[in-house]
Design a protein that fits this description.
It comes from Candidatus Anaerostipes excrementavium. This protein is α+β, with helices and mostly antiparallel strands. It contains five helices and four strands. The chain has a four-stranded antiparallel sheet with strand order 2-3-1-4. The N and C termini lie close together (7 Å). The model has no long low-confidence stretch (mean pLDDT 89).
Length: 152
């Protein structure tokens, strides 16, 4: 489906890494039927091509006491869109920025240490963004399904 440009072996390796990025080359090799060295070479080639971008640890903010995770929807004028994006990119509390279709031009995810810090983010940053005609903020109460990256 999405990996038509890759052979079946690379697809199998990627599927294993998506389930557990800490899996050793030896274990992957055992599961796909090639040597540890061959697995390492294939993974390095996938990294070099940019197919595999990074390996990361995902933290669930809802599991940390007091942490607030939320989404902002912003309607931004075309004239100020670039400036708004630039300002949001620099803010460490903003974790994701998406340019989207529809009424809202930007979909933003933020994580703060408390409700007070979220209030401060809104007052100090979000309320002062230029060209915003509408802004909404929804606090995430629980995570039901959250898939990172491409799933096969």
């Amino acid at each position: 489906m999405f990996l038509d440009g890759l052979d079946q072996l690379d697809q199998n390796i990627i599927q294993l890494l998506m389930k557990n990025a800490r899996m050793s080359y030896s274990e992957i090799g055992e599961r796909v039927g090639i040597s540890r060295v061959a697995v390492k070479m294939r993974i390095q080639a996938l990294e070099k091509k940019g197919i595999i971008e990074e390996y990361t640890t995902i933290i669930n903010p809802q599991k940390i006491s007091g942490v607030v995770s939320c989404y902002f929807e912003l309607q931004v004028s075309h004239d100020t869109l670039g400036e708004v994006i630039h300002r949001l990119e620099r803010n460490e509390k903003i974790t994701q920025i998406y340019r989207v279709t529809g009424e809202n031009k930007l979909h933003i995810h933020a994580v703060t240490a408390s409700n007070e810090e979220l209030d401060q983010l809104i007052q100090d940053e979000m309320d002062h963004l230029p060209g915003i005609s509408h802004m909404s903020c929804s606090i995430i109460l629980s995570r039901i399904k959250d898939i990172k990256g491409l799933r096969l």
